TrEMBL record:
This is MFS transporter. The chain crosses the membrane at residues 39-58, 65-83, 89-107, 147-171, 191-215. It comes from the Bacteria. Keywords: Membrane, Transmembrane, Transmembrane helix. Coiled coil: none annotated. Signal peptide: none annotated.
Amino acid sequence: MSETATKSPPNPLLEILLTIALPSVALDQLSKPSSVGPFWALVISLLFPIGFGLWCFYKKMGWNLFSILGFLTILLSGGLGLFKLDAFWFAIKESAIPIMIAIAFPLSHRWKKPMINALLMQPQLINLRALNESLAIGTRKAQFDHALFRASCGMGLGLIGSSVANFFLAMHLLGGKEPGSEAFVRSIGTLTWMGFIVIGVPLLAVMMIVFFILLRSVEKITGLERNDLLNPGQTVRRQVVKRP
């Protein structure tokens, strides 16, 4: 294995899990009175993005984008919990996470590890061997990178829509309830499962639309047929004409 391969960064989805998702779950669970409480829950949760960011800086000589986003997200969530702010600020927190991930999609191209690759450019979906061979011709790689960036912007717009929906859903469920009360906590639980349905399903639809638009762009760039691109095997039925 080459040195470059050894130093390759982790999967972006794994980074989101370690720096945003897992710390968020820890913050919610540990903030309960029966556990360590809001302050120490915030401290423990912040250790995830801080620790991962320091590890990335030590191993790869650079700060990790998702560690920064995770730190800001957990700091915002924990701060709201400490001050027991009302439904409006809780709704702001709920909408902040998808906005930060939305920004991360196009911004990840600057770090040369597009998040869109972890979602769509997988061997289970795409014949990567045929794709890479075709992209080695002429200026196709640059065109492909531009198409990937447009797909990332599409995912970002979908997440911004999710953020807006998150805000209004939180206001609908939590508005008028006293922060920290039993009704407030119960509504937070309702918000969690309703969010998966009301927000998750449309977001999945956006991802599918982005995938098929990207697939159509890749067909035009490479000259490969859709069936060849979606075939994870070794063969390509049509000869790809080499264009300058």
